[in-house]
């Protein structure tokens, strides 16, 4: 009986060798995938189911259709919270992007004591939103904070009482949020700027192109991926904003600085309106998907197009 050639055994042996690491890696991902499916997608489905019931303090599976959504959309406080979300989101994300990018450019230009400035700008990031809210509550308190300090210096007509004004309280959330998160944005932008090819700067100096034009017309378009990352991270912070609202304004005066996340938590835990809170949470999720998905699709499509070329 003829023995099989040595080369004939090789594919089978190599196939087994390739099979083991491949399936070992897949099996290692099973626990993480299970947790994600159960704790994320499972709870999304459960939240939607609860939103179709009359649940109050505890889940009650007596379906009432979309009654909770009708109640939600008829609730004036919900629309105030959604309007505040739009204002806070634009100011917070815009402020973090603009100031973070400007700070990154200043540090990238090689200022003295770079390490000290990076530490100063990153320091607020080490605090929780609760601590940030308490700090800025003191700063913005008309009787104790900035307004009182400036008036003590002799400027008796100075006013900075936004935290107690219904038409200005939402802006205080953006100020405190930008102060805390701008360091993270700066670090991300700075990492992107440090990856720019130095030959670009050499060529711009030879051609006599002003520095601001290089940043505006050349460097900024090359940083598109970093801008995309910052936008996604800051958007996630805006959508789940709760602790900053509670610590800084408490949603007030009245509900003038309320946000959807606080609306949901307040109705589920304090008002025993589990069904209405679940409806608010699901609508908030749909809002996030509707706002972020087109931007993600545009960026991914642009990236694929760039790779194709």
TrEMBL record:
<dbReference type="InterPro" id="IPR051393">
    <property type="entry name" value="ABC_transporter_permease"/>
</dbReference>
<feature type="transmembrane region" description="Helical">
    <location>
        <begin position="170"/>
        <end position="193"/>
    </location>
</feature>
<feature type="transmembrane region" description="Helical">
    <location>
        <begin position="214"/>
        <end position="238"/>
    </location>
</feature>
<dbReference type="InterPro" id="IPR035906">
    <property type="entry name" value="MetI-like_sf"/>
</dbReference>
<dbReference type="InterPro" id="IPR000515">
    <property type="entry name" value="MetI-like"/>
</dbReference>
<feature type="transmembrane region" description="Helical">
    <location>
        <begin position="27"/>
        <end position="49"/>
    </location>
</feature>
<keyword id="KW-1003">Cell membrane</keyword>
<protein>
    <submittedName>
        <fullName>Sugar ABC transporter permease</fullName>
    </submittedName>
</protein>
<comment type="similarity">
    <text>Belongs to the binding-protein-dependent transport system permease family.</text>
</comment>
<keyword id="KW-0812">Transmembrane</keyword>
<dbReference type="Pfam" id="PF00528">
    <property type="entry name" value="BPD_transp_1"/>
</dbReference>
<feature type="domain" description="ABC transmembrane type-1">
    <location>
        <begin position="82"/>
        <end position="297"/>
    </location>
</feature>
<keyword id="KW-0472">Membrane</keyword>
<feature type="transmembrane region" description="Helical">
    <location>
        <begin position="274"/>
        <end position="298"/>
    </location>
</feature>
<feature type="transmembrane region" description="Helical">
    <location>
        <begin position="85"/>
        <end position="107"/>
    </location>
</feature>
<dbReference type="GO" id="GO:0055085">
    <property type="term" value="P:transmembrane transport"/>
</dbReference>
<dbReference type="GO" id="GO:0005886">
    <property type="term" value="C:plasma membrane"/>
</dbReference>
<keyword id="KW-1133">Transmembrane helix</keyword>
<keyword id="KW-0813">Transport</keyword>
<feature type="transmembrane region" description="Helical">
    <location>
        <begin position="119"/>
        <end position="139"/>
    </location>
</feature>
């Amino acid at each position: 009986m003829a023995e099989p050639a040595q080369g004939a055994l090789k594919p089978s042996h190599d196939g087994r060798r390739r099979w083991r690491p491949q399936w070992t890696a897949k099996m290692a991902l099973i626990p993480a995938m299970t947790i994600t499916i159960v704790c994320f997608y499972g709870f999304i489905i459960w939240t939607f189911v609860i939103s179709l019931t009359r649940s109050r303090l505890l889940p009650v599976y007596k379906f009432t259709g979309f009654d909770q959504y009708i109640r939600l959309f008829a609730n004036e406080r919900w629309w105030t919270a959604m309007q505040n979300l739009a204002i806070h989101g634009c100011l917070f994300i815009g402020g973090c992007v603009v100031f973070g990018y400007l700070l990154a450019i200043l540090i990238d230009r090689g200022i003295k004591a770079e390490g000290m400035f990076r530490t100063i700008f990153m320091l607020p990031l080490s605090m929780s939103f609760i601590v940030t809210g308490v700090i800025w509550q003191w700063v913005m308190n008309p009787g104790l904070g900035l307004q009182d300090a400036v008036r003590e210096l002799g400027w008796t007509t100075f006013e900075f009482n936004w935290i107690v004004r219904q038409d200005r309280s939402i802006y205080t959330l953006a100020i405190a949020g930008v102060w805390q998160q701008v360091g993270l944005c700066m670090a991300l932008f700075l990492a992107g700027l440090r990856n720019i090819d130095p030959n670009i700067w050499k060529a711009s100096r030879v051609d006599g192109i002003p520095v601001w034009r290089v940043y505006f017309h050349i460097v900024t378009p090359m940083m598109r991926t970093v801008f995309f990352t910052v936008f996604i991270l800051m958007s996630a912070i805006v959508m789940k904003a709760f602790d900053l609202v509670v610590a800084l304004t408490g949603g007030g005066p009245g509900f003038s600085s309320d946000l959807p996340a606080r609306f949901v938590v307040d109705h589920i835990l304090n008002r025993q309106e589990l069904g209405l809170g679940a409806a608010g949470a699901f609508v908030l999720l749909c809002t996030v998907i509707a706002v972020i998905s087109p931007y993600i699709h545009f960026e991914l499509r642009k990236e694929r197009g760039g790779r194709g070329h």
